[in-house]
Design the sequence.
């Protein structure tokens, strides 16, 4: 989308000569006889592409010609793992720059139940402060309250207060979980504008980005041109009373929802990120700086159209260009930067498309598997008044109103009833999950109990955890904006690419599995920052006899 790139470049005030080079997708040539740099980078650029599964990466990697193509010349780990069971946005982002799994970060899901919350709504959103009067988990006050551990940026600040930490994303939970508690700048799209915590001044770079985005949204968007490799995927299919598969991101003037679910959102995020890098002179001081960038549009496209259609093909093509423009801007400023790109989770295509493409075992979960309804039936059977079971994101909680001496009977009956559903793979009790230990085995070899343990927090997790069988979509009734999803313990939701790149490094590819928690110790080693007590291990990014982990 050349027009979008032009708007991006204008908003970050890139010099005119460099703009032309970026718009022509110029890339630095691969260095001959490259030697992995020995000096620490001045800026860490950590990018999360929401719902960028390993399957999606594999499907399009030979189509990338710009930003992704550059990353493919670095250290490529195509089988990274969000090793836990709760493959959702908030838990996944909490692992990327903490080096710890969700069981330790405290971010067990996007939402969970807190029966002691001081409000009528007991469901809690991962990036809110439920103590604030007048809020609920949908109309919340954004906060970093629930993240229990520091991020790499916080570790860098602790070692050298001169380090700057910046976080920009298309979602609040992406910005917060990667930025952490001590950020110099934190901005995210709230559905209407780029915002931050209350009372934070708006820096010029963000204001320029806001104005550029407002101008973009105020104008209608014509359908995007379709690259030749996307044309075979432009096949319409009816799902939930709507046609998907051949969309081209045309947008009426002022349509905020369509903007959010399009490549334009990522363009805006990277524009603001680049503007902050430029204005704050990140990567040009004595101490290393870090910026985390949450590219959220892929997730909105995946949910709204499924990752297997023409819309996702267009999204991948446009994101490739946006990354290329962003990297070219950093090159033009002479910044020595280290990139890592990964994802918070994978994703699974729409059931109806899967059924048409040779997967007849695909199905949607039955509406009868309702925690509320099952709880009502148990209450009637056991003659317990009031709500019996509360549910959120697969976690099931016994209500505090159930007498203590009846809880065991309620749990036993719940396990019995839920396990009887043919679509259920397992119903694990908190005792089973707590008793599991993380093995010294590759993440693909973990049991369901071990995967669940990796995202288990005794303070926040439920009394039971429901796991659906593979290829059972958790969406019972698809509708506009929500036809496909993720969140399962299966590898199509757990596997993500992990890509490292720095100018001059000698690249390689390692097909064996690693974890996203390995990112922090790996990056910390490149800036000579000692870290300990993490779940991850340092990855040697030197393809030769050298060792970047030493």
Sequence:
């Amino acid at each position: 989308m050349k027009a979008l790139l032009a708007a991006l470049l204008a908003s970050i005030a890139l010099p005119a000569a460099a703009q032309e080079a970026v718009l022509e997708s110029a890339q630095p040539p691969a260095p001959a006889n490259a030697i992995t740099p020995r000096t620490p980078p001045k800026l860490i650029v950590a990018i999360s592409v929401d719902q960028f599964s390993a399957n999606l990466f594999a499907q399009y990697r030979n189509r990338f010609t710009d930003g992704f193509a550059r990353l493919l010349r670095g250290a490529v780990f195509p089988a990274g793992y969000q090793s836990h069971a709760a493959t959702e946005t908030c838990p996944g982002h909490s692992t990327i720059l903490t080096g710890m799994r969700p069981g330790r970060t405290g971010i067990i899901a996007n939402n969970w139940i807190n029966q002691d919350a001081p409000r009528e709504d007991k469901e809690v959103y991962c990036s809110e402060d439920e103590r604030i009067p007048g809020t609920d988990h949908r109309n919340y006050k954004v906060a970093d309250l629930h993240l229990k551990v520091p991020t790499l940026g916080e570790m860098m600040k602790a070692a050298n207060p001169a380090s700057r930490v910046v976080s920009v994303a298309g979602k609040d939970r992406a910005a917060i979980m990667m930025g952490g508690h001590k950020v110099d700048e934190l901005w995210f799209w709230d559905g209407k504008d780029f915002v931050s915590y209350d009372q934070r001044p708006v820096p010029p770079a963000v204001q320029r980005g806001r104005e550029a985005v407002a101008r973009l949204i105020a104008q209608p968007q014509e359908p995007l041109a379709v690259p030749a490799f996307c044309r075979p995927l432009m096949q319409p299919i009816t799902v939930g009373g709507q046609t998907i598969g051949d969309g081209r991101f045309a947008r009426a003037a002022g349509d905020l929802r369509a903007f959010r679910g399009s490549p334009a959102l990522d363009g805006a995020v990277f524009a603001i990120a680049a503007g902050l890098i430029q204005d704050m002179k990140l990567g040009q001081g004595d101490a290393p700086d870090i910026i985390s960038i949450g590219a959220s549009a892929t997730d909105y496209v995946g949910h709204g159209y499924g990752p297997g259609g023409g819309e996702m093909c267009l999204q991948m093509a446009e994101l490739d260009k946006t990354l290329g423009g962003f990297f070219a801007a950093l090159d033009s400023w002479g910044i020595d930067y280290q990139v890592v790109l990964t994802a918070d989770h994978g994703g699974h295509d729409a059931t109806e498309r899967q059924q048409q493409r040779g997967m007849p075992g695909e199905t949607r979960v039955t509406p009868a598997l309702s925690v509320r309804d099952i709880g009502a039936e148990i209450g009637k059977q056991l003659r317990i008044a009031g709500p019996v079971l509360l549910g959120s994101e697969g976690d099931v909680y016994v209500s505090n109103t159930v007498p203590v001496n009846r809880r065991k009977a309620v749990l036993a009956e719940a396990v019995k009833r839920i396990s009887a559903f043919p679509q259920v793979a397992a119903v694990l009790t908190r005792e089973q999950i707590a008793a599991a230990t993380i093995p010294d085995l590759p993440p693909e070899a973990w049991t369901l109990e071990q995967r669940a343990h990796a995202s288990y927090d005794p303070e926040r997790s439920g009394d039971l955890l429901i796991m659906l069988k593979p290829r059972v979509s958790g969406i019972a009734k698809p509708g506009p904006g929500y036809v496909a999803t993720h969140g399962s313990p299966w590898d199509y939701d757990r596997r993500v690419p992990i890509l490292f790149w720095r100018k001059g490094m000698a690249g390689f590819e390692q097909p064996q599995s690693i974890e996203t928690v390995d990112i922090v110790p790996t990056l910390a080693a490149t800036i000579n920052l000692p870290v300990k007590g993490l779940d991850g291990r340092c990855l040697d990014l030197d393809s030769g006899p050298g060792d970047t982990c030493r």
User: Anything to note?
Assistant: Residues 310-332 form the longest helix (23 residues).
